[in-house]
C-alpha cells in the first residue's frame, strides 16, 4: 500500500500532481483513493487504496490511511480520488481530508480525477485555490515532462494495478517447462542426498538431508550475491535449483537475509524474474521474497501484487501473512533491521562460512 519517496519532485499545480501519481505508484490508478506526501516528512509516503463500494467501509479506510500518515510524520498531504463517479468518491475523499485535518495534517490539495478532467474537492468552488470551474479542468498527463522523463529513464508505468499484477505472469511457457524440468532434477538430487550412497535401499537419513540443505543454502548465498554483483539472468538450471532450495523455510530465510536496503532493487529484479519463470506450484516462496524486496525498495504496489501471487500458490503462506500486515499498517521500510547470519538456524554449527 505504501511507497516512500526516494526523490524530491516539484509539483506546481494539479497537472504536475496527477502526473506524479503513476510515476510513483508504478501504474495508473483506477477507482482509487491516493494519499501523497507534500513537503518534508520523517518518512515520506504515498499510499493507494481501492475506493470502497460500501459506505460502511469508509471509516475503517480513513482510519487506516490517517494512521499511516501519522506514523510517517506527515505535516502536509494531497488527496486524489480516481473515479468518474462523484457520488461514490467525493464523500470518501472528503472524509479522508477531514480525518487528516483532525490529526493535525494540512491538506492543501484535494482532487477527483476521471482520466480526462480534474475537479477540486474543497468545501466550495470558491475555496478551490486552483480556480477550478464546476465542470472540471481538462488534463493530459501523456505529454507531461514527468511522463516523458519516466519513458527516457526506462521506467515502466503499467496501465492499471491489474496490468502490474499480470506482469508477474509467465509469457514464455516453454521456459516455464524448462524450469519445471530443472525443478525435477533438483528434487531428485535432494531425495538422493537423503539416502546413504552405500545402501540405496535404506530409508532416508534426516542428517544427510539436512547436510544437503546446508550445502544448498551456501550455494544459494553465493548465487544470489553473484546476481546482485553482475545482474546476469540465471539460467533455467539455476532457477529450478533455487525453487527447490527456497521451498525449505530455513533455506528461504537465507535468501530473505540477503535482501538489504542498499541492494533491494537488485533482489526485485532477481525474484521478479524467478516468479515469472516458476511453475505455479513452486511460486509461493519466490513471490514472498519478491514482495519483501519490493516493500524494502519502496514499491508497495508491486509488493501487494507479489503477495497475491504467493497466496494464489499457497494460501496462508507465513511470510506473506507478515508482509500483508506490514503493508496494511503502513510500516516504513526503514523500520526493518537487517537479519544477521547468526539468526539463520540453517547455518548453526556450520563452519564452512559464506
Overall description:
This is DUF4192 domain-containing protein. It holds the Pfam family DUF4192. It comes from Nocardioides iriomotensis. By secondary structure, the chain is an alpha+beta fold. It folds into two domains: 158 residues, Cytidine Deaminase, domain 2 (3-Layer(aba) Sandwich); 175 residues, no CATH class. Helix content is 50%, strand content 10%. The protein has a seven-stranded mixed β-sheet with strand order 1-3-2-4-5-6-7, with helices on both faces. A hairpin with a 3-residue loop joins strand 5 and strand 6. The longest helix has 25 residues.
Cα shape: elongated
What's the structural domain tally?
A: 2
In N-to-C order, the SSE pattern is: EHEEHEHEEEHHHHHHHHHH
β-strand amount: 5-15%
Secondary-structure-based class equals alpha+beta
**How many helical stretches?**
13
Strand neighbour order, sheet with most strands:
1-3-2-4-5-6-7
Q: How big is the Rg?
A: 23 Å
End-to-end C-alpha gap? 35 Å
Largest sheet: 7 strands, mixed
Give the rounded overall mean pLDDT. 87
Number of strands: 7
Bin the helical content. 40-55%
Q: Which residues form runs of ≥5 with pLDDT under 50?
A: 2-6
